[in-house]
Design a protein that fits this description.
Structural class of chain C: alpha+beta
Strand content of chain C: 25-35%
Low-confidence stretches of chain C: none
Number of domains of chain B: 3
Low-confidence stretches of chain B: none
Strand content of chain B: 25-35%
Number of domains of chain C: 3
Order of helices and strands of chain C: EHEHEEEHHHHHEEEEEEEEEHHH
Helix content of chain B: 25-40%
Shape of chain B: globular
CATH architecture of the largest domain in chain C: 2-Layer Sandwich
CATH topology of the largest domain in chain C: Uridine Diphospho-n-acetylenolpyruvylglucosamine Reductase, domain 3
Distance between the termini of chain B: 55 Å
Strand order of the largest sheet of chain C: 4-5-10-6-7
Oligomer: heterotrimer
Shape of chain C: globular
Number of strands of chain C: 14
Number of strands of chain B: 35
Number of helices of chain B: 19
Number of helices of chain C: 10
Radius of gyration of chain B: 27 Å
CATH class of the largest domain in chain B: Alpha Beta
CATH topology of the largest domain in chain B: Aldehyde Oxidoreductase, domain 4
Distance between the termini of chain C: 53 Å
Largest sheet of chain B: 7 strands, mixed
CATH class of the largest domain in chain C: Alpha Beta
Chains: A alpha+beta, B alpha+beta, C alpha+beta
Chain lengths: 167, 782, 290
Amino acid sequence: MTQLESPTTTGLHTVEVTVNGQARSAQVEARMLLAHFLRQTLGLTGTHIGCDTTSCGACAVLVDGTPVKSCTVLAVQAHGAEITTVEGLAKGGQLHPIQQAFHEEHGLQCGFCTPGMMLTSVAFLKENPSPTDEEIRWALSGQICRCTGYQNIVNAVQAAATTMREA
Amino acid sequence: MSTTHEVRGVGHSVKRKEDARFIQGRGQYFDDITLPGMLHMEILRSPYAHARLKSIDTTAASALPGVVAVVTGELMAQHNLAWMPTLSGDTQAVLVTDKVRYQGQEVACVIAESAYVAKDALELIEVEYEPLDAVTSPQQSSAEGAPLIRDEKEGQTDNHVYHWEAGDKDSTDRAFAEADHVVALDTFYPRCHPAPLECCGCIADVNPATGKATIYLTSQAPHAHRTLFAIVAGLPEQNIRIISPDLGGGFGNKVPIYPGYVVATAASLLIGRPVKWVEDRTGNLISTGFARDYHMRGELAVKDGKMTGLRATLLSDQGAFYADAQPSKFRAGLFHIVTGSYDIPAAHVVADGWYTNKAPGGVAYRCSFRVTEASYLIERLVDNAAHELDVDATQFRLDNFIQPEQFPYHSATGFVYDSGNYPEAMRIALEKLGYEDLRREQEEARKEGRLLGIGISSFTEVVGAGHGKEYDIAGLRMFDSAELRVHPTGKAILKLGVKAQGQGHETTFAQIVAEELGIPYEDVEVQEGDTDNTPYGLGTYASRSTPVAGAATTVISRKLREKAREIAAHLLEASADDIEFEAGRFFVKGSPESAKTIQDVAFAAYTNLPDGMEAGLEGVTYYDPPNMTFPFGTYAVVVEVDRGTGQWKPLRVVAVDDCGVRINPMIVEGQIMGGLTEGYAIAAMQLIDFDEDGNCIGSNFTDYLIPTAWETPEFEIGELSTPSPHHPLGAKGVGESPTVGSPAAYVNAVIDALWHAGVKNIDMPLTPDKVWAAMNEAGIAE
Amino acid sequence: MYPSRFEYLAPTSVEEVIAALGEREGAKVMAGGQSLIPVLKLRVASVDTVVDINRVAGLDGIEEADGGLRIGALVRHVEAERSPLLTKRYGLLGATARLVADPLVRNRGTICGSLAHADPQGDWGSAMLAARGSVVVRGPNGERTIAVDELSLGPFMTTLQPDELITEVRVPDPGPRTGGAYLKLERKVGDFATAAVAVQVTMDNGSVGQVGIGLTGVGATNVRATAAEDALRGSEPTDEAIAGAARLAAEAAEPQSDNRGTADYKRNVVRVYCERGLRTAISAARAGEE
């Protein structure tokens, strides 16, 4: 694991991360949340913030492939890690199957929870490529959607799973 | 469906155009926007529910490096901005000057270079409060000796806000006198909150050089907000531009004007830099427009198995300021739809509103202006009545439904229902459910000691506000608008006075234009939310977009079609009377093979016009709906209740909705499932509660519970379509039907499981402990 | 939503962690951070220094060792949820892991962090009481072992010194004829327990050999229902015996009435869940020999 250097005299820490395949670096206070680091310092506003008690999961991103609530991780903790945000799902102009599936299955309405839902689903499908609906609901049970009623989200994950299995 | 797969007008389940940016994380929600020189605002909120403000010292806060300004009520008062009007004709504090009236009320604001620093500065503001006794219910605030909450209001001697009645007392009293059975129900629709996933907020950018204010605002009604801003802030209206960008949900939470918006704007004006205010979830739940908090007593008079009269007595908890966003002539919103789907000849509604030491509001959360409360009351009453009369719940409803031949139906409280087919919706639902088999299964289960329940709700609601003479908000008549321009290359741009927060307007309204003009829906760009670039409208809430702006879009499309017909006649060298139109093609009667397409006509509108005709193919219309629309449906829920813990699980949820013509069935079903989930959440777990000191319990997501995919049931969706006769497309609107109609279905199911033991009512939310307590009292708990 | 400023250290050895804790007042260890960071965001506690142990080597892993299991301080709930070791005789632990918080929080939070946090609504405290776990603790004066029974003093208070670090939790091998269950009443996934019951039973021929019952959310700490355990130990697990033990477990509970329910309600949940948990555990224990 990459060693985090001592803070500078101004109390700032240098954080080096790879985000969506790109090396990024900045000096931040220890108290800065990863969610704010992504949104404000790196300008990646696709990760959203919906609550203040680690309850809603709108802020979910992948840290070293694992979905976490970025509002409950300090930016300094991510030093040396590989982070995937929603902006990193499409590759070379091609949408990721999960993105295509959410679109086809009407798995989003206002779009605010969607980045987190998709990222968690991508990590989940890696480990469970042929899930039941129940397993999908369990995997997403740390995240809230107010618009869809979840049924189309589940359908979208199933559709993506089918596409990814057949690829 | 009359249009082709290429054009995709009304009736096609086309995929959404707006998805592209959201699935790539490129939505533009207001907090995604950064302006040069932008500052950040955080709000200091009162820890007390009721307290005099003795002193406030901002010296230390102001001195913190990075802090640019600290705004107090005193400073706002100097600019006449410490108080502002509400949408209901009351006044509301922007920042506290004299006393705090609810926990979480805005006391001061810090504007700093970053939100982190602003939050640091909040801790340095020293406030001295003198706590006062708080009242947290209308029963308390109406009692003798209750503290006077609005002591600053001239002429206000108690906590009473309004008295309002609908229907007719005498004929209702007669019906009750002659009844052979009266069913009564006292029930409380608890305070809950729309809690869209994106909180409220704004970026106020008042340009010091030009005096122009650009305000990015989480607003479901940008034009109305602009007018109110002009009045409140004294800024000339032509200098205010409100841009409501992508919204992460609204559900009525983004209709009111909040103090944060006003302070941010004033701060930007005074400082000369943009000021961003991002609300946090605690602020959202503790201070912004909540929903319901309605104490209801309902009585149903029955004679010979028929409903003959309905009484509803209501106590409304308005919070500290009367700030309901609803048509101004109706103090209890559209509650008087309470006779619902039933042919009840006499009804009387009496409503009183009371101030309490709680956040202001009440009309929100997909409620159709209090139709949620009314629908809950009648559907619970009807189910209880069926039990008391020992009649099947579905049969009792069928016996009392307004029949299809009775439409347009004049209700006892003055509504004219446009169309409906209630028995058919019921029939479809029961068939999907396998109702007879389920009742048998329920009996068998009961013998084994298992508690199964079936709950029905056959709701009729009223949306599409509304005809200007009757419906206005703060005086602004509730028309809505559509402005359509067809470009030379045959594409089009449609601008609307409404504003979606996830409902898919960019797709569905394009489909309307596609339907009427034959322009493929992908070629129609839809814009909403920017007051500089859209026609004036009253916004999106109460399911009014399709009924009103959808009608406007249809009307203007048809108007342009008539001009297009004239141009086509010119191109075809025929008389306009001989020109027919079909799916984007104009042709002389009998010669469809020589047609001019709408694209040909569009080009001609700029290049080859008949003599004397103005160039261009565009127009704007403001639609005044002749009546409301009345979506309806039947929902059925099956539950099993755990006798040991009181937990209950919906095993099946069947929903049959009739919203008239469906523009995009996929989007309609999405709306229904979302609303059924909110209905479940309200019935099962959502509650904003207060202790006796007025402390708010439910001001974050660990106390205010939102169900996840794990708790939320699966939905079986059926459909029916009875067009609205007065709407140009026959569409009625659907966004709120499921939140209106479903809570009663869930609750009726649980009560149905327990009725045999003597349980007649449990107020929402039906948390496991409450269900268990009811079973325990009835002797059937494990 | 925005924490106050604090100093942050990310040492790479246990010695450095202990030294940092010793040198600084108001220093807190952070492992998963899923309890600490929320507290920092709400500014309800002031922490001057956060000592992040995530870069310390040697604190991960679940393994069989020394007649039982050892679970390192950096083992996340999700690892426990997925570990093939935490099944069968250790099934109580796998069942508990699954019900902690929600899937995203489980990806970061740790078992030992949960034990150190000592929230009476924490799940692991009850599971470890039932499984007779103990934590290995290192401080400036060396290493010691504390039975989980003796770890909690009250809500969020433990017998740990400010300069001590839990390096692992150990669970004794209960034997092959053991089964466990964790039943948790939560109003939704991620809610704290209204009440929960952890049960572990080892069968000895036809009787209950060992039994552990831990209760969540019904006391100032996680509660071990000793009277219930005593009543059941050595007995044949008849319906009456199970019901009797469940009643005793309910009596051992000291719940508060709050927005999740009255004290009476919570006691009833304890009783019902204890019964159901015992049945499940005994079934699994009996199957364990096959």
